[in-house]
Structure to design on (98 residues):
């Protein structure tokens, strides 16, 4: 796209991109839940320092996973907002020709 000074926005494609990001976030969460279910079955038998160390790592992991989920949803929201803003600007510009 280098040197291409034209901007093309396909509203359906923009919405599809936002929906794809949200779908990916849901799929990621489902996979993480599946993995953590398996890990929990094993880790529930741990005791002492190993269990405490695992719990600390789990809290850190969960915080990071939550941040990723939030970021994905925020990106999808911003894509939709940008699309709505672009559409409004496009309509205003079209009004100049009427």
């Amino acid at each position: 796209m280098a040197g291409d000074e034209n901007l093309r926005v396909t509203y359906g494609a923009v919405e599809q991109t936002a929906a794809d990001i949200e779908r990916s976030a849901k799929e990621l969460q489902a996979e993480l839940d599946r993995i953590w279910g398996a890990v929990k079955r094993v880790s529930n038998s741990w005791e002492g320092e190993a269990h405490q160390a695992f719990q600390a790592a789990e809290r850190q992991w969960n915080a990071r996973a939550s941040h990723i989920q939030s970021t994905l949803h925020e990106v999808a929201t911003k894509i939709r907002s940008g699309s709505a803003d672009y559409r409004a600007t496009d309509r205003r510009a079209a009004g100049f020709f009427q």
In short: The CA atoms of residues 44 and 80 lie 42 Å apart.
